[in-house]
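Researcher: Good morning. I'm working through a list of sequences from a screen, and I'd like to move beyond sequence-only analysis. For each chain I'm collecting a predicted structure so we can compare shapes side by side. This is the next one on the list. No need for commentary yet; just the structure.
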Amino acid sequence: MVTGMFQELFNKKLSGVEIKPYIKGEEFPYEHTSSQYQLIIFLSLGCSACIDFLPEVNELTDDDLYSLTIFIAGTNEEINALKEQLVFNCKVISISEGEKIERYKVPTTPYLYLLDKNMLVINSGKADSASDVRIFLKESNLI
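Model: Good morning. Structure tokens for this chain:
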């Protein structure tokens, strides 16, 4: 049986549909924030790189330049257990795999979007670790 990230890739190949992420300047479907920038990271519990990334999330919450939100594809029970175990210092939202793809246009995980205060996409990309996210933020001229 095919699961997790391989399931996503298998389904994309089978359906012939390529998931195209939101591009620079497009409005992202998320609530407005008082922060100048919003960093949104998408993870999936069926993805080994995401599982490895989870303990590093709090390393990214110390920066006042942006507000961090984590969207995790998994059940509410799984997400609640993670919240208790890892005690995130940011907002964590449970979403379905379908919602991750259809609403948020996430082509793979881990994946992130950097948004401005009006929820317009500044940049997006793949990042497998906190250090990858810092490189992404530097390339986005945020740090």
